[in-house]
Amino acid sequence: MTKDELESVDLKKIKLIGGLLAEKNKLVREQVIPYQWQALNDELADTEPSHAIENFKIAAGRSKGEFHGMVFQDSDVAKWLEAVAYQLTSNPDPKLEKRADEIINLIGEAQEDDGYLNTYFTVKEPEMKWNNLAECHELYCAGHMIEAAVAYYKATGKDKLLSIMKRNADLIDSKFGPETDKLKGYPGHQEIELALIKLYQVSGEKRYRDLAKYFIDQRGKEPFYFTKEWEERGKINHWPDFNQKRERKYYQAHAPVREQKAAAGHAVRALYMYSGMADVARESADQSLIEACRRLWNNTTKKQMYITGGTGSTVQGEAFTIDYDLPNDTAYTETCAAVALVFFAQRMLHLEKKGEYADVMEKALYNGALSGMSEDGKRFFYVNPLEVKPEIADNRHDHRHVRTVRQKWFGCACCPPNLARLLASIGSYIYSQNEEELYLNLYSESKTKVEFDGDEAEIIQRTDYPWDENVEVEIKTEKEIEFTLALRIPGWCKEASLEMNGEQIELSELTEAGYAKIKRNWNNDKINLKIKMPVETVYANPEVREDINKVAIQRGPIVYALEEKDNGDNLAAVYLNVSAEFKTQFESDLLGGITTIKADAYKIDESAWSGELYSTEKLELNEIKIKAVPYYCWNNRGEGEMTVWLKSN
Amino acid sequence: MTKDELESVDLKKIKLIGGLLAEKNKLVREQVIPYQWQALNDELADTEPSHAIENFKIAAGRSKGEFHGMVFQDSDVAKWLEAVAYQLTSNPDPKLEKRADEIINLIGEAQEDDGYLNTYFTVKEPEMKWNNLAECHELYCAGHMIEAAVAYYKATGKDKLLSIMKRNADLIDSKFGPETDKLKGYPGHQEIELALIKLYQVSGEKRYRDLAKYFIDQRGKEPFYFTKEWEERGKINHWPDFNQKRERKYYQAHAPVREQKAAAGHAVRALYMYSGMADVARESADQSLIEACRRLWNNTTKKQMYITGGTGSTVQGEAFTIDYDLPNDTAYTETCAAVALVFFAQRMLHLEKKGEYADVMEKALYNGALSGMSEDGKRFFYVNPLEVKPEIADNRHDHRHVRTVRQKWFGCACCPPNLARLLASIGSYIYSQNEEELYLNLYSESKTKVEFDGDEAEIIQRTDYPWDENVEVEIKTEKEIEFTLALRIPGWCKEASLEMNGEQIELSELTEAGYAKIKRNWNNDKINLKIKMPVETVYANPEVREDINKVAIQRGPIVYALEEKDNGDNLAAVYLNVSAEFKTQFESDLLGGITTIKADAYKIDESAWSGELYSTEKLELNEIKIKAVPYYCWNNRGEGEMTVWLKSN
């Protein structure tokens, strides 16, 4: 790593103290991980059984029976295990660790002698291994289990799962590559690329990095591998409605990755790939790949991203569409895509140290990702639209993907454990460092210890962020330590000020690419950062036709929404009075403690309308008060309408 | 018929003189009928061959080969023939009549000995007759050919096709009915119901009326016939993607028709059925059926109709959805549905003599129906959205049904000949009568002759309607004739005035349910009706969420649209200044001669925007001039954006 780059501060060294992120992290620990354990073991009432653990038992020979579930069902276990690992890193829990060890033993038993590990193929179609990468997620499942293995090793020092997955990765490495006797394929769903980089980082074995790079480089080459393998296996499909002629864009295989200009295809596949590209680019100092990452980042976040950090404008292929096409009610905006954007953003930040990456990371985290889970951690959204009217969602086929209440579990349960692993590891997104600098990316009540030249400093953040604009940072040292402290000045913040040990410091001179950088010999200093957090009305680029004449309410990193519960129905008839004053209030008893926003608005007086379908009569407006709540916590008080974008006067 | 009812003045007695409807009628005669003849004979370049005539030749034994095309391909020939019949009624054309006679001979040869007539089943699946009503359109095709037969008989006095179709109808009557040995089914696509009433009216044979009533009454009964026949034929489907579990609503079979409260399912099926219901109700004085017609009329036109008279809010099932769900860009609004609404409206008008029916008839005709055909009569829209942005339509799967330019022909070519038969018979929508009254429903330069008590009056309309608000009606008689002349005062008209022989007459006292009724002894009188036609801004009911904060521009019966050609792109960024003055101008050289409308408006200044995707910067507006053209003639000057609903300040 050069000093132009960054890496996360080790999760072990981070202690979350309080505030929203700490609460969500605790929710994952106390509710989500046990709940998902029940789900994986088919113990939830009224939901489709997952069968995920049972599949491993059958593959291991402990149970008799058939494989059930998605072809990628194994990955749910992997993501759960990864979340457990992060959890154990910060909060030792012998009972949970024992449970994880038992599952790891089971996974070991399910592994075949040559290192192969995938319960679907072991149990159901052993003769079909590696011949349907397009549909069958073998490499994807391997990737998730590798991530779990690395996390578990780092958390516990136990290398059993790591060994299992190294054997598995070695098998994959023996199957894929440029050598003539190897397959020239790449994953139908990207994931293993970034996992292999983690495996390389923890093992130091370059073949894993090179295999990741191979998969990245191979994609988009001619002839199209997925058609080739389909022909070679006799044109047999796994999914009954699978269309072999599906656009190559769906898989980001429409062009070599370095030639791709815009985010395209399935959003989660795309963002996992971009994350893997950033990893490979960094580990191999590949400038053309870095360029491609920048280009795809810019397109994703400046042309195709919802204000919530959600991506994927259409249910068709759960995909990106075209620039500025951001419909609010039919948005796909999968929870996994917001999680994946957090991954991509952190990797770009670590490559380039620019605040704009942290801005998007924060936006996707606090809005489009958090919205995927209910306040109690037991209900989940897969799709996160920005506007919902239940009777429309229930009756229109083009809204068929929109659920108007969070679900207990899903047949395709990728999102809940993905959010769990993100929130379990959220500490590692707060701080980044290199040999000279410590970056504070996210503000959250927490502490960490960092070393510079062998000397340790303790960093303590005290803040009620994201509800409060004040952040106190205490730097505790035993002696003077020289390093640069880089405090993020969020892109949404128009006015920030800073005191060091009670003295005002001019920020503008210190600030570069979104971070205020203070280089000094630290010796028990205290910084008070104020990042002014007024309520803002945000407009979308006028190319976004769905948002013209509308505003979104935002305060700090939090995007707000109106719910029917607070504002009545027909929210489309509400006009925000943009010149009126906003009133904020922290309501500790509401939705886990949130700041709500009240404002003056108008609403069409439906009772004054004749009832005609069309008429030349004028619409009359009533003055009303509206109340907005953070988007992420919508739909925790029953079913009803919701909208992020509001008409404005 | 009672004097509470009406019937059309015989098409033979009507002469179109000039104006928009006469021009469209002439276009059908001179361009559309010959063009469609080429289409039916596979003579159009660069289009999918129709094969429709060839199918008849194969069935008749004149050609060898396979059936090609849709299972309902025969109906394209029927509709063409019906259009030809109307055409011959008003404009004798021996060459065309000879061509029609030849086709009728061919149809006769294609008929089987027992009266069966359907080239698909005769040629391709003779063993499958009558066992798949849900999918295979046998009764639908029969209905269209019956309509053609009645029209041709009325036009020419030749009864060959009528005899063919009576034999066919008799066969159907022998197959379907309440008797134990008969099938208890009903059409998968309604059409034959209203055709059988026409056959009854022309033949006087009540069994045809009773069969129509049987089909109407049978629908919605338990058990669901289409599931029963599917099981009985071994669960074989005609359409590969046909879902037997498709909602019964699609076929309007979710409840007995008298219990149906809202328009539901496939819009054309529904509206044909409602038309058939109105016919049966009238011919059998069935009050409960009339009540059902009123209820379904009210729901259709007051809750589920676009301002263009289009219906069908979703491509999924080409169907009605729920009240007030009227998305503009994904609207299905099939040309056939607008044509069918004209049919339904005329039938309701003839049942109840209320102007509201004629209002909708006029609206659907001038807007949602006419838009289906290009100015040259050689390009057609199947789907008629109210808002189009080509790059969205081309890239979003939920817009997959939207074509951004009219097409030469369609694999499923129901719409072009449907529009042709409507426009060929348009004269019969202008005037209606009973033994005491003559109703002027549509204003159009034309003349007719009507008899009251054996005495004849000639009625001459002189007008430039719909471009001009003045209508002169001359009543020429040889002696005094007493009757009531009922002049429609359109629902959109807020100020009308009337002079009789130069003297002002107070209209309000004469006007009842949308018609000014003048009962007198007519003797060469002249009426000058002025129906003020200012440009109006129309609002939608605030329950229509897609239209909130928007206005449509309407003048008289014509709904206007903005096109990119006149107004630049990003029409979503245009705001109409509703307090500004509208300027109208008749442009004789534009789009066949239309009145255009200019107005002041604002448009977001995209060049002043930073380029950010989201920003707190305010949007700046530029003053612009906009120009609107009639919706029906959009897309005759190249591909581009279009919108009916405009934001307003």
Q: Could you give a short description of this structure?
A:
Chain A has 649 residues and is α+β, with helices and mostly antiparallel strands.
Question: Could you explain the architecture of this structure?
Answer:
2 copies of one chain form a homodimer. Chain A has about 650 residues and is an alpha+beta fold. In chain A, helix 3 runs parallel beside helix 7. The first copy, chain A, is globular, with a radius of gyration of 25 Å. The N and C termini of chain A lie far apart (about 50 Å). At the A-B interface, helix 13, helix 16, strand 15 and strand 21 of A face helix 13, helix 16, strand 15 and strand 21 of B.
**What are the low-pLDDT stretches of chain A, counting only 5+ consecutive residues below 50?**
none
Q: How do the strands of the widest beta sheet of chain A line up side by side? A: 2-6-7-8-14-10-11
Largest interface: A-B, 52 and 52 residues
Count of distinct strands of chain A: 24
Round the Cα radius of gyration of chain A to an integer and report it. Answer: 25 Å
The biggest sheet of chain A amounts to: 7 strands, antiparallel
As a percent range, the share of helical residues of chain A equals 25-40%
**Which outline of chain A best applies?**
globular
The number of distinct helices of chain A, counting runs of at least 4 residues, comes to: 19
